[in-house]
Input
Amino acid sequence: GKKTNTMDTTTKCYHNLHFIFIPLMAPGHLLPMVDMAKLLARRKVKVTIITTPLNSIHFQSTINREILLGSQIQILNIKFPNQESGIPEGCESVDTLPSMDLMSNFYIALCKLHQPLENIFQTLSPIPSCVISDKHISCVADIAQKFDVPRIIFDGTNCFHLLCNHNLHNFNKNIPNEGKFVVPNMPDIIELQKCQLPGLFNPGRNKKLNSFRERIREIDEKCSYGVVVNSFEELEENYVKEYQRVSGYKVWCVGPVSLCNNDELDKVERGKRINSNNESEYEIVKWLDSWPSNSVIYVCLGSLNRATPQQLKEVGLGLEATKRPFIWVLRGAYGKDEIEKWLYEERFEERVKGRGFFIKGWAPQVLILSHKAIGVFLTHCGWNSTLEGICGGVPLVTFPLFAEQFYNEKVVVQVVKNGVSVGAESVVHLGEEENYCVVVKKENVRDAIEKVMGEGEEKEKIYGDMARKALEEGGSSYRNMTLLIEDIMQHVENKVKV
Ligand code: UDP
Output
């Protein structure tokens, strides 16, 4: 792979600035924050990432490589409060929770991070200039206030999401319980149903979770200096502008941050679960090399795997029906035993032998999506995956499952227009999977794939190029990163004056 030239000798040196990153412990939040931290450190700002030992082992080596290339970046570990929150030892991230019933305990753990974070803040040197924290770790608001540093939030999504939530919050009591409605004040006509909305507007059974969400939203509103977004202006221009206008926040779009992994090793190792049975990346690439351009279907429903076994079976049958080569990331979570039994009893892997490649460990997704053989990405519309598909220049087949994923489907289908929907109709509340029936049939899966297969030549490639340009010197995200740094620089200088 091409060696990264991370250090640009013409950029100013900001080593008196010290940015603190506090990511949420879930791959969809931690991975982009680590990428963002790397990008910032390449701009000669000192960066510290604070997390817990079982999270940092997954990205220590990429940080070590950044240090070798000249970045001032470090990881500091605090203990994950397992005992105090009732989360089993050995589990320090959402994707490793033995059951989603423990989600509210996870929020308790996040609150219990308050004291350890405060203690570590006291030892930081130079004094933090600002803290970029996942919005879910809301105790950081108090800490930032106490140490008088600006708290910038990150929530893993895009401006479409931020604007949609903003508008729905004001509209909340008018959201109909049944049927479609138009989200007010959006730049495009966006129709959604209540059952497709994230938990804040469409609460699940878990009351505790609902109240945590509400609290996070309140703290968010009161105590943040601005928001960094893993998106780029050209992708959702109207939404960026409109969100800036209505929220009054400082908004910095600095993505797609996954593009910082231009080193082959960084792509291979990104997020890799050290203890899981990872398929060899070499085998995956060798297999992909054996197929023509734009011919392979890549299927991955994210790091949390919340689709039901019944639903997964339909996905499998749909893939079989395309008669095309595919990679299916099928690492079990909910209903793991059942799906494995089905694979075995139906001899499914044999039926698709040669053209079906199964990944049952952690998939090197960014590596896979950058391979020219991939022709379509069937995704659950987690925002990172969506962006990674856009960067890979492939059309998407959208299969939203939970959280704000139905919003992201709208971004794909209506705003960017680089994909088609498989026809999912409602979110699966985490921990309530058993209530969810199969709505997407194998025919839907097959037909949606056929609609976009092989189209990844024109528009999709243009968006991929646009994304790369945004991150290069002179691009919009590069410029926004500069603006962020200079804003904080100014803030620090003003503080010294008074
Ligand atoms: N990911 C990966 N391998 C996997 C599953 C996920 O590399 O087997 C990465 C993926 O590239 C993305 C992140 O994990 O960066 C998942 O984030 P996303 O927002 O797409 O969905 P979530 O997992 O949060 O639902």
